[in-house]
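Let's sit down with a protein and look at its sequence and fold side by side. We need material for that, and I hope you will provide a protein of your own picking. Once you have written the record down, we can walk along the chain together.

***
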Amino acid sequence: MFNDPVIAIQCWLSHRDQNAAAWLVNEHRPQVIRAARSWGAPAWMEEDVVQEVFLRVFRSLPRFEPRMPFTHWLAVIARNTCAKMRRRWCRRHRLSAGFEGGARELDDEAAGPQEAPDQQLVHKEQMALLRHALSRLSERDRLLLEGGPTALTAAQRVALHRARARLRQHFPQT
């Protein structure tokens, strides 16, 4: 139906043609996913990135200059959106970098043989502190934290965020 983004954009802007919008999203979705992956977005978060990028694209379409290639314009929006989402994610989940999968690693208490003895001792102490902090949480919170970031619903993500906050309260700051 459409073979040129400029035509699809004009159809969207003039008639709010849903087919034009769907074509733009379907045609350029792989580019946005590649950008998300290059920014380190986890697989379960890719759809959120795609939605956020195209939301910004459709809001900005009236300012699109047809002289420049649409893919370049989209790449800039995707890059800026990914950077913003990454900053937001890192702020909200400061704890996740240290504990991502940490609950699953509790059984693997032996530090790697390449670590220095003092690093092994620090690792064991941190694991003991983490085990203690996890023991003070409810079973529901522990299950959420142990499950890792799989495809979660919005309610489950909120519950996971709150469980991490409760874990942070029980985990001593170093």
Residues 141 and 162 are 8 Å apart (CA to CA).
